Amino acid sequence: MRNLITLNSGKLVPTASLAAELDQPFELIDSIFDTLTDSITCVLADMSLGQLEVQQFMKDGTKNVLASFSIQTFDDKILSFAHFADYNQLVFVLRSGDIITATYDAQTYDPQMTVVEIVGSIETGLEAAAWSPDEETLAMFTTEKTIVLLSKMFEPISEYTLVDEDLKMSKHVNVGWGKKETQFRGKGVRAMEREALASLKASGLVGNELRDPTMPYAVDSGIISDLDNREISISWRGDCEYFVVSSIETVSDPSEDSNNLERRVLRVFTRDGALDSASEPVDYMENNLSWKPQGSLIASIQRKDFNTEEESLELIFFERNGLRHGEFSTRLPPNEKVRQLCWNNNSEVLTIVLNDRIQLWTTKNYHWYLKQEIYGENIQFAKWHPEKDFSLMYGNSNSLNIVDFAFKMIQGPTLEPFDNGTTLVIDGNTINITPLAVANVPPPMSFRDFETPSNVIDAAVNLCNEVYAALNKDFVYIASVSSFEDMKKGKHPDIKCEYSKLEFANENDTLRQVAFINDSVIAVLFDSNNVSNIALIEVQDASQPLVINVIPIMGKVVLIRSSFDYNHLVYETRDGTVMQLDFEGNSEIITKFPQLSRDFRVKRVHNSQSLDDNQWSTSSSELVAFGLTSNGKLYANDVLISSAVTSIEITDSMLLFTTAHHNLQFVHLNSTSFKPLPLVENNIIDERIRAIERGSILVSVIPSKSAVVLQASRGNLETIYPRIMVLSEVRKDILAKKYKDAFICCRTNRINLDILHDYDPELFYQNLELFINQIEKVDYLDLFISCLIEEDVTKTKYKETLSLSIDEAYEVAPPPPTEMQLYMKKKMFDPSTSKVNKICKAMLEVLLSKPEYKKKYLQSILTAYASQNPLQLEDALKLISGLEDADEKDNSVTYLCFLQDVNLVYKVALSLYDIKLSLSIAQKSQMDPREYLPFLQNLFEQEPLRCQFIIDDYLKNFEKALRDLIEINKDGATVSDELIEYIKAHDLYKPALAEYRHNTEKQNYIYAIFAKSLSSQQEYIEAGIIYEMLGDYKEALNAYVLGKKWREALTLATQHFPSLVDETANDLISSLSFDHKYVDVAEIYLQFLDNVEESMTNYCKAYHYDTATLIAAKYNRIELIEKVVDSGLGDGFAVVAELLADCKGQVNSQLKRLRDLRTKKEEDPYSFYGEETEQADDVSIAPSETSTKESFFTRYTGKTSGTAKTGASRRSSKNKRREERKRARGKKGTIYEEEYLVKSIGRLIERVEQTTPDAVRLIAGLCRRNMREQAYQIQKNVVELLDMLKKNVVEIYTISEKDRERVNDNGEIYYLPEIPAPEIKDFPKNKTIDY
């Protein structure tokens, strides 16, 4: 859809310094671009005298004479010229066979200092020569048909002599399977076939209907054209790996072996000189040749002049293997002489050089467009710049011209309501017109078109999309339609006027570009002697244009276009200055770009940050020019806002541009303060970023439809509806209370309908009835209600960016919620604060307020009930149950079953005890009638209370069923067996006790069976309390004994069973001793068995030496102190001393192991984690995608790299359990050992803390019994152990973040929680032995 326009052109007329001395004119022979110095090197020569002069023209205008010398041959021809600026060397290859180098002095540029020498010579002479694009290899074709390759240092690489056998290298495939139709035939047979074809055409029949379409009428033999200049051509591929040679060979005639014919052949060679392929025969192919730099196509010319009805000049393509690969008609006369073919550097433009003009062709969708023509006289050569894609140089014998081009998308306005997406495509003399808002016609087709008498160089359309202007070399063509509606109906624009440039310019002036101001003024840019002029032509009456003004411009103009609102013309000069021009000729400077832009837009931007939105004025706005340079930099006035940009467009509120990173980006035009945009990272969810197909560019923007039209690199069009543009319209409609329009827009573009509420909740609730009336359709209202979600979409996926700063970083998508987060969200859900519930309740309030609403929106009411959380199905079913119309009731039931699980609806209907409604719902489910029909039939036959009981029991509403059963048996004197069994079956003791709280007799009966249930569940204490409360002391005593409640048990035994006191006491002593409750045992011995010695013994076991000593003194048993207390102190000393020794040894060994592990891990982590190979419990059972050997990543995380990337878990639950067991064991040599050691020391610290109170009491007892040495040792060992732990606890518990890193089953990295370092408390020292 893009067109080529001329940005700038310059003319250079080099003059040889020897011309005046010799009084002989020098001709311009050749010229090349020098990329190293950004200059142009020209070769001037008088070949009749053998005089040559080389001049270099710098960008600043200076001229250097690099060489001036004579050659030994006269009337020779330069076949190739190269300038190696890095070597200061010029290389000439002459037809006579000489290879001449001229090495100049780059400091003085004195031609007298230039060293000229012949570095080589081909005695037989040369016919063609060409350097490779990298200037490393020279290919030459000798008169003896030999290909010679030389290096840059002129060392031979290879030689290859052409022979007829080469033609057998043709790699084309015969698909005729030996049929006669596919074989070569003579001229007579071909003439007969042409006559047959002409006869078919005359009869009105289509030839392909009468023959096999795969069979050709004739097979080419490769004969040459009479206009062939018989020259040899060489062309290199862009990567310099191959080159192709076009030559004429004499071969035998396939139809008559006795005759010979001349055939032009293409041979493809590698850069080493090896023959790769030869072309298939093609009739009338000529010598012109050019290999596409970035591709596999070789272009050439075929002149079809054998049949007057089919005379044409076609451009044909070959593949590297020599096979044909398409063609297109050049639309030139068959006798037109083609001088040269060449491609531009990026292979987008194919150039056909003629005598008086140069044609530029581009292709999209397999169609070739003639985009531009450059006119000249006696053009000798044309060359594209090797680095600047759109800089072309062409020359004749006297002058050199340099032209810069740029792609231009010729569009109509993007200003509403004129945004029809009108796009103009130039194709030779045809203007293709497609209003993309009306019809998205894929190119090369178009919606409408019109033709001009000659090829078009630029075109434009006015604001109303009804008047068109087209430029060619000498005329401005004005075409129009009566109205845009007529164009929709099929009317093509008609040319109303052919306006000659002589009306406003001179004969030698060059027309370049055209644009519109408003609807009725055309601005034409033309050059006159390197001065730019703009002619303003009034076309109110398209048939009678009138020149208003011709304005000369200071500085060369490179681009003109209409401003955004079409009220002015804006243009850019060569120095990057952007000016605004009105139709009266008044100009105003807007800005100056830091670099020359090849595409730009101008719009007045309102600064909404300084004033309210309603206060639009000139003082609150500024004209802003957005320019795109050739290297992809995007400027807003003089501020660089982005790089790697490929195309731009603007609307009234946004700047749009595509990037080389395949994104479509948007910038809000609500501020005149522009800053560089932030980088676009992965997983961006900002509405200003939209991913697009690779290589797509902007074609048009249609704001009224929220549409953007893109063209992919292959040429097809794609219309997208970016979320930012759609949401912008939705937000406007919401604020304007146009809820129906907003709803339709959201529904069409799959926007979450919650935005209708979330964007302005207060406005929504205030206008809820208006919302319902505008939506009107029940289905639409149902869709809105049923799609509601809890989140505020205006804060998540549809966050508005209008108020954000232009340089604020784009929002990145948050990670998906984990299962735990989802669980906690569900668990913490509060129905009272639910957005969905609030909207549904508000809807119900309105819909149930009026009978007409209730009748019309019954389905929506049911939707509102069914969409709440928790579900309000009871209210919905009650509403349905109250309907009188049977059909309406049935439809409502069907709809409700569609909304929710029919089994759930069935159960809710049963809970309402509505059997008929339940039956209706069951019939719409997948339940087996043999199951639900007998059940429902049984319900019909039961009494109401029994029916309710059966339903509640079926629904597992056991408490309600219990109440029903109690109500059924309320007249009974006792609790019925059925009720008792039901309570036992469903553990309904507490509800039953609550129901009988006013009936003590029945409640006591329930308590009795409850106590038995508690005893069976080993809840003896509660059972004992109930038995004691009921007066069953024997059972209470047994329960207390089993529950080890010795005080309660001995109390009952003493009060009610004195004979059982000793037995009870002994039973309690046995069970309490087993639990190490020695203090309780000691009290029982002392209080109930009067056994002082055993009491003291148990106090000593509990380290209560002071209490044991007190008892001995109280009961006057002093002798027991030495016997019992001293013995207990010895036992306690042994236990504590052994414990402390074990702890100290464990700390030392585990601390040493920890340090060894961490040192080894730092020195060689791979070896550390790879120690356990045979029992690698953390290796995935599937191999890595790159290796079958487990990696460090695999062993450490339990995932292969492929597993982690895909998130696929390959570990079974069995493997997970096994891993947890190994983690708990902390086996030596595994990756879990460090974690195990840390936790082991933590358990040791806890044990020491638990032992500290016993150690304090032991030390006190030892001191009182004058066992001071033992006391000293215990206190010393405890203090040393605690000091050791306190000193190393930080080191022990410090685990690096890398060591805590793990990968879960979803491939996500997570970290084990840090193990907090415990606080080591000081030991309360006994001052008696603190020395």
UniProtKB/TrEMBL annotation:
GO terms for cellular component: cytosol; elongator holoenzyme complex; nucleus. Residues 1120-1292 form the ELP1 three-helical bundle domain. Pathway: tRNA modification; 5-methoxycarbonylmethyl-2-thiouridine-tRNA biosynthesis. It is found in: Cytoplasm; Nucleus. Residues 1-387 form the ELP1 first N-terminal beta-propeller domain. Residues 425-699 form the ELP1 N-terminal second beta-propeller domain. It comes from the Eukaryota. One of its GO terms (biological process) is tRNA wobble base 5-methoxycarbonylmethyl-2-thiouridinylation. Residues 723-939 form the ELP1 alpha-solenoid domain. Residues 948-1108 form the ELP1 TPR domain. SUPFAM superfamilies: Tricorn protease domain 2. Pfam families: A-sol_ELP1, Beta-prop_ELP1_1st, Beta-prop_ELP1_2nd, HB_ELP1, TPR_ELP1. GO terms for molecular function: identical protein binding; tRNA binding. Belongs to the ELP1/IKA1 family. Residues 1165-1226 are annotated as: Disordered. Keywords: Cytoplasm, Nucleus, tRNA processing. Residues 1197-1210 have a biased composition (Low complexity). Component of the elongator complex which is required for multiple tRNA modifications, including mcm5U (5-methoxycarbonylmethyl uridine), mcm5s2U (5-methoxycarbonylmethyl-2-thiouridine), and ncm5U (5-carbamoylmethyl uridine). The elongator complex catalyzes formation of carboxymethyluridine in the wobble base at position 34 in tRNAs. This is Elongator complex protein 1.
